Amino acid sequence: MKSLLSTLLLLFAIVSVGYARPIATSEIAAKSAQGLRLLSLAEGEDPVWKTEAEVLDLLRAGKNFFDVTDTYELETKLRAQTGSAAKVVSDVLRATYAAPSKQTQVRAILGTLTTTNMQSYLNTLTAFNNRYYRSTTGVSASNWILSTVQGFATQYGRSDVVAQQVTHSFQQPSVVVRIPGSNPSAPRVLLGSHMDSINLSNPTNGRAPGADDDGTGAVNLLEAYRALLQGNFRPTNPVEFHWYAGEEAGLLGSQAIAANYKSTGVQVKAHLNLDMTGYYKPGTAEVMALAPDYADSGLNEFMKLLITAYSRIPWANDLACGYACSDHASWNRQGFPTAYPFEAVTGNDNPTIHSASDTTSVNGFSWTHSLEFAKIAAAFAYELGI
Ligand SMILES: *[C@@H]1O[C@H](CO)[C@@H](O)[C@H](O)[C@H]1NC(C)=O
Ligand SMILES: [Zn+2]
């Protein structure tokens, strides 16, 4: 009894310390002006200031984190407003969804997805020297994605589609395109991937084609969006496709957008994250590996039904992805249901990422594998949006 009480008191003390002394606006302004970044390195721990060199060392060491420099104040305000939760939730949630039921309509759309189109988009994306979030070519990649999604809206006569760039505190803007719902206030269906790439030895100027990380996820969403427009997709719920800036530097674009949606009361039905879909280790069986952590277990159950209904390859349970491992974590952090199907069970995934070698010529890269993720993206949008 005594030890239980002291354990509870200790827990209470840890939680209180964590949030009793929020970092002041003036400190954030002063330190970020010096080039320091505020990083959240682990669940339940206070964020810490790091120099740019230290940030790069963490990236090179493969350590994942949220860079919360730009969102810390908004999150602190949100916590104060909602009052209840001591921190922004990152628990596994449990949303519920109806089983897939639109097979005829969905299959018609899936039949129009092509690997040729995806290869063509990816040729453009990988031709940028890199898509780093603070390089001019990273900005050019964002501009190209925007003009491409606008071009599809024009091509298919969809003046109702809204495409825009979301600007951040750094150069590269994220891109958001919305297919309006007949019920504009219905919870939105979101599909995201990241546009940026990084060469870990020389982020600003080094070659980083980022073909798989995350060119594949980015072109899966371009092609799913295109096919839905071609199929005259008119959803009930608004359906949005996101291309996030600055994922490789601490989930910057997705955090900014997720925190903005939370603070402005945008309702989210479900979020799908595609980050690396084009590789599986030669000799291993093809699967779609579902991240079990920082994802919604109810949405993962829906994903299993969706994959079984629409993909030729089976789902698998992945190993834990860990804290802040990709953009789904930004949505989970704000309490929105999210899922993350990955190219392979961790360990059988692409070993060339974050380098000049992340190209489509790597042994194990497969367009027919990646196509399955474009199919699942289009099916996700249709089944949840209609
Ligand atoms: C980074 O880029 C340079 C120059 O473009 C290249 O020589 C180097 O191999 C790249 N680093 C990695 C880790 O691929
Ligand atoms: Zn990635």
Automatic annotation (TrEMBL):
* Residues covered by the Peptidase M28 domain: 175-380
Named cofactor requirement(s):
Zn(2+)
Q: Which GO terms describe its biological process?
A: proteolysis
Family to which the UniProt record says this protein belongs: Belongs to the peptidase M28 family. M28E subfamily.
Supply the InterPro entries for this chain: M28_fam, Peptidase_M28
Q: What is this protein called?
A: Peptide hydrolase
Q: Which domain of life is it from?
A: Eukaryota
Enzyme Commission number: 3.4.-.-
One Gene Ontology term of the molecular function aspect: aminopeptidase activity
Any coiled-coil ranges, and where? none
Cite the entry's keywords alphabetically: Aminopeptidase, Hydrolase, Metal-binding, Protease, Signal, Zinc
Q: What class of enzyme is it?
A: hydrolase
Task: Name the source organism.
Answer: Candolleomyces aberdarensis
Region forming the signal peptide: 1-20
Query: What PANTHER family does the record point to?
Result: AMINOPEPTIDASE YDR415C-RELATED, METALLOPEPTIDASE M28 FAMILY MEMBER
